[in-house]
Amino acid sequence: MNAVAAEWIKLRTLRSTWWALGAGVLTALALTALGASTVISRWDLGQTGEHASMGIIVAVYVGVVLAQLPLGMLGTLTISSEYTSGMIHTTFVATPSRTRVLLAKASVLGGIAIAVSLLIAIPGYLYGQAVASGFDPTPLPAAAWTVVGGGTLMIVMTTLLGLAFGAIFRNGVVAISMLVVLLVLVPFVGRMLPGGEVVNRILPGYPALQLIEQVPDTMPDAAAFAVLGTWAVAPLLIAVLANKRVT
User: Fold this and answer.
1) How many CB atoms lie within 10 A of CB 142?
2) Residue ranges per domain, the chain?
3) For residue 102, which of 22, 24, 163, 47 has the smallest C-alpha distance?
């Protein structure tokens, strides 16, 4: 717990933390409000209350996912900045177990990612409910929890992936570049190459978009959650091994 508390203190005292969180939350909230208003304005009068509620949830979690890159960048900078400044040596003196340091950072960042998703989702949901009040949206239907879980796991996964890349490459620019390549460039190129769609389905983007109902289902929801979970955990395991090297 001491390692987690130390990482929280370090993270909250960095100006870059609040810039990244502010940019992610404000951008996502603005786009969520715009997206929800646009979607709701196109509904026909026969829209049922349950469908209206699902439409609001989907619009909200599209907004949540849009905050993933700023949080992924925060994840990379959390550790790469320590390597750049040399502070990582002090960290390892205070906590000799490098695995413990990395897991402490992951715990703090995972908690922050969940908190950010709620900061976006709750106001977005309330706004959507107000705008769609004429359709009498129901409380959260059972199917909404898949969207909530998928959107939240996506933003946590991206944050932890950023941390893993930062620990592996130990350079903020390289780590952020790899994050953008994996999440944006590779799926874009894959859509234009033969067989690329098959590859895209095992990357983190497609399962997340499936869970928030933005692309057709190509796998069971449980498999989509498993793919996202693997992308959150496997790079961290690689980072743990890489972090055992002498700095």
Assistant:
1) 7
2) 2-242
3) 163
